[in-house]
Each structure stands twice: as structure tokens, then as C-alpha cells.
Amino acid sequence: MSGSVSEARQWGRLMELAEIGAIVGDRPEDRGVNRPCLSAGDRQARRLMIGWARAIGCAVSVDAAANLFFRREGSDPSLAPVLTGSHMDSQPQGGRFDGIWGVVAGLEALCALHDAGVATRRAIELVAWTNEEGGRFRPGCTGSMSWSGHTKPAAFDGILDPDGVRYGDALAEQLAAEADIPRRALGGPGGVVPHAYVEAHIEQGPILEAEGLDIGVVSGIQGSRWFTVTLTGATAHAGTAPLRGRRDAVQDMVRAITALNALTADASDTLRFTVARIEVAPNTSNSVANRVRFTIDLRHPDAAVLREKGDAIEATIRDAVAHCGVAVEENFHAMPVVFDPLVTGAVAAAAAAEGLRHRALPSGAFHDAQFVVPICPTGMIFVPSRGGISHNPAEYSTPGQLAAGARVLVRSLASLAG
Length: 418
Ligand code: GLV
Ligand code: MN
Ligand code: MN
What we know:
It is a single chain. By secondary structure, the protein is α+β, with helices and mostly antiparallel strands. It has two domains: 2-222 and 336-416, Aminopeptidase; 224-334, Alpha-Beta Plaits, CATH 3.30.70. It contains twelve helices and 16 strands. It has helices at residues 7-18, 40-55, 100-116, 142-148, 167-177, 207-210, 249-263, 303-311, 313-320, 341-353, 369-372, 399-417; strands at 22-24, 31-33, 59-62, 68-72, 82-87, 124-129, 196-202, 215-221, 223-232, 272-274, 278-281, 291-300, 325-334, 337-338, 358-363, 378-383. Strands 3, 4, 5, 6, 7, 8, 14, 15 and 16 form a nine-stranded mixed sheet that branches. Strands 9, 10, 11, 12 and 13 form a five-stranded antiparallel sheet that branches. Helix 7 packs across helix 9 (313-320) and helix 10 (341-353) crosses helix 12. The longest helix is centred in the C-terminal third of the chain and has 19 residues, at 399-417. The two termini are 13 Å apart. Residues 133, 140, 365-366 line the site of glyoxylic acid.
């Protein structure tokens, strides 16, 4: 049935979805996407998916976290389904493939089974998780964290987007717009426990391309912790206030980041430390800043290192700043995970059966799969990313690479679903 995967259909759908929120990158030839979760564009993209899935007889449902499910029934509906999927939201300057390819590949797999007339024993369900990116509402993975019971859904309601919109309100708006779609319970404990979960995703790194490989059999995902740091000083006149008496929040941010660079220095270049969102108040060039808020994204494959470095962040900042008050809030933690041999074995066997060059490799990006690991055997499939570029409109994988990934996905799903 992998022969029924259509490279043209999958690519056409991806490009149609990429028109919703289309943006141009630094170079005119770089076409990207800005499609925030729980937005009008998100809803428009979901409606396209719903139409395509219904056309092959899939049942559509949505849960209280707005995770969207498509079910292709199995010959024994009493058995736990096999789950696949990814996310449809993008970074504000995102690419056309991060997340959305995993959803479109899941649909391509269902279409291939449909076209080949293959019945599986277990149902196969495809999910589009809500807000994986955290680009609009921080943190990401709120859909999969709610579904899996990792975090109570109401805990996210008060999160504000950059325009001051509450997550809870945006979620309610989305659910109201999709009130015609049948509701289902959240998963995990007390809900549907899948037999297995397999997520297809672009690699977002350089390894597969550099080694001339087609498929990554993902072995696990490194851990991540997100923090928000607020430094509070006092504003003053840039021309008249002597430097000596200032409580300048920008200068203290520089001290804090310098100290954090020392804390996280790693000769092996394994640890990832990123400050990438900075808000300055009053944000005018001739007033000293009285408040700075900046984010920290910290990642490491070793839970002990992630714990030790993350736990040292607040003290490091307090020691480094000269004049400002310090508040540090942890917004997100995803511990490192190792994937289950049931799924990694199915993916490796599927790649081999397709005659594709493959290897095991870990994921540096986090994924919804991280939160499915405690619920059921989980794994992922990677396809190469040109130049390893992602979270960038220049992100690219070829139609042929993506079709090969969909063929591995449909084989993996068929073997897991019997
Ligand atoms: C996911 O988008 C990540 O930041 O790893
Ligand atoms: Mn992603
Ligand atoms: Mn991403």
C-alpha cells in the first residue's frame, strides 16, 4: 500500500496549506508561513484538512484542548487505535514543513490505505495537536500536555499572547467555531490510550542531508526548560541622569546574559542555551529602561545536566545583576525521553522494506511525541531538511523526500495496526 502514496497529492496539499499565512523570508525565493495556533488561519487550515479527511470516510472529532482527530476505522473497533500526527501551527517566521508535514503525511498514509483498499485490524487516528510551537502562546505543546494529563488544561487559560489575548479565550473561540464537530474526551489516563504513537516530522537539523540518508529513526528527544526573567529597575532621563545612580534594566540584562553564558558554556557543544525574546520598557531611546523581560530556552539530552543548569539560573542572575530586582519564572519543562522499540523497530523495518538509507538519531527539537511517551509506545520518523534549516522561511525538504517519509509512515502504521 506504500505504492499508493502520491507524491503530487501530498506536495499539492502542503503547498495549498502554505498559502494560509504565507510570508516571504530574507531572500525573495524563501517562502515561509506565519500561522499562529487558535487563529483564523489555523481554523481555515483545519477546515481544509477536515474536507480532505471526510472525502475518504474519516470520522472527525475535537477535544477540549482543540486537538483535532481523524479516525479511519479498523476491522476490530474494540482495539486501541494507532495514533499518528503532529501540529499545524507555525513559528511567526516559520517554514512550510515544520509540524504540518506530519499531519499531511498522516493524511497521505490514510489516503494510501484507502486507495489500496487495505483494512487494518486497529483503527488509525490522525491528530493535529494544538499549539506545539509556543510562538503565540508560551509554552508550546499545550495540546499534547492537556491530552496526556501532564498538565491540567485550565492551567493554560491565563497565558497571554503578545496582543494580550488570553489562551482560554482563544481556545473557547476556536471550539465555538468548530461546534459542528463531534466532541471527544481528552486522552491519557481516563481517556483513549492508543496502542502506539508515531509522529512524522522534518529533521530540522543537518545530519541526514550531510550523511546522504533518507530517513531518521528517531531514538528520543532531549529535554527542554523555558524560563521568563523580569528585571526591574527605574527609568530616568538619558541625558541628565548620571550613570552612577542608574538602575538600568538593559545593563543588568547584559550582565545576566554574560553570567548565563558562563554557566552554560559547554566545550562539547551539546547544551543549547538561547535568549531570543526581549521586551524593554519604556522602550524609548532617550529613557533608561526600567524593566526588561527576556526568555531562556535551555536544552540538554541528560536530565541531570538539565536539572543542575536550570536550577542554577536564578541564583546566577541574582549574583550577576548590579541594581535591579529579579524575578524568574519557569514556564515549561519537558524531560528527555527515549522512544519505545515497538515503534522504532517498526519504523526501521519500514525504511528497510522501502529500500531507504536510514539511521537512528536523537531529536534536538521538542515535539508533542515527548508528552505521549508516558501514555503509550512512541516514536518518530525524520526526513532530511535542506541545510538543516528550520524555524526559518528557507526551511525545505523535496517532494521526493517527503513522499519517502510518507511511505515509511504508512508501512509503520500498517504494521502497528495489524
Ligand atoms: C519546537 O518547535 C522546538 O522549539 O523545539
Ligand atoms: Mn514541529
Ligand atoms: Mn517548531
